[in-house]
Amino acid sequence: MAVTIKDVADRAGVSPSTVSRVIHNNPKISEETKLIVNKAMEDLKYHPNAVARSLANSSTQTIGLILPNSSDDLFTRPFFIEAMRGISIYAQNQNYNLMYCFSNSEEEEVEFIRNYINSGWVDGIVLFTARKDDKCISYLQRREFPFVVIGEPENGDEILWVDNDNVQSMYNVTSYLVEKGFRRIGLITGPDQFAVTRNRREGYRQALISRKIDIVESLIKTGDSFSEETGYQCMKELLSLKNPPEAIAAADDYLAFGAMKAMDESGKQLPIIGFNNSPRADFLTPSLSSVDINPVLLGENAVQLLIKSLQNKVLPFKNVIVGTRLIERESTSSY
């Protein structure tokens, strides 16, 4: 028998009208009551409006997108715009609409997901990143709600996800620099909580080990964000070393942009490669070599997996690896 709003009310010890107000995020309901009611809905696996939709033999035809960026950053980061373009193209062809939100923290993302599910506004959710001990993924799994991740999650065997082979991509970048004659290669990455950081760092390490080059921990800088400011500070630290690096691999173009600023100020230009092939990379002096990770295809494949699962189509695989390629520009071609 289907779970009803009255079942949730009984479980939470409140009235059905209070449950309804929690579902619609009424500001008059206390945080304590919201927690109790949300816990009851999770325990009972109650999805508001699910019964009504099944009776009507229809769905919302809407996908929710959870963007891990503030409103200020969202439209300055080409990766998210391009991934959303890929999602939009496929979703529109399948007659699906999109609803998106952006956030300042992982906790805020979970709250948005809870509201999406409880309101019955969306049929499934796209996450744009994978973290260590990911709270969004854990919450969606507890609620047994359809979702896909752009990024390789931990324990992802039963999760739909799409990503690049980030280990291999950074392995290729590091090998490229080694083949140009560099042995002391600095690495600048973003926060360690993100799978992309850990995987690209592993690719860097594997490339050095395979060529019997010592890994020097002081040449590896893990920043607290993927911002230009982080890249700038990390590069200043690398340049201040008694034995500084000969070349730089940056795990994101914005880290590379900041690193190039620090190099300009120091008067020392080192070969450097970024990731994401941002449009701005072409207009710098020198122009920045960068790895094209094909974000349009990442987005398209992600939403394709999700929509096919919503349509109960047989999926021959639960994850997709999208290829990358190095775009060589002046920051490495002249060495």
TrEMBL record:
SMART domains: HTH_LACI
CDD domains: HTH_LacI (cd01392), PBP1_MalR-like (cd06294)
Keywords attached to this entry: DNA-binding, Transcription, Transcription regulation
Gene3D superfamilies linked to this entry: 3.40.50.2300, lambda repressor-like DNA-binding domains
A GO term for molecular function: DNA-binding transcription factor activity
Domain HTH lacI-type: 3-57
PANTHER family: HTH-TYPE TRANSCRIPTIONAL REGULATOR GALS (PTHR30146:SF109), LACI-RELATED TRANSCRIPTIONAL REPRESSOR (PTHR30146)
Protein name, as recorded: DNA-binding LacI/PurR family transcriptional regulator
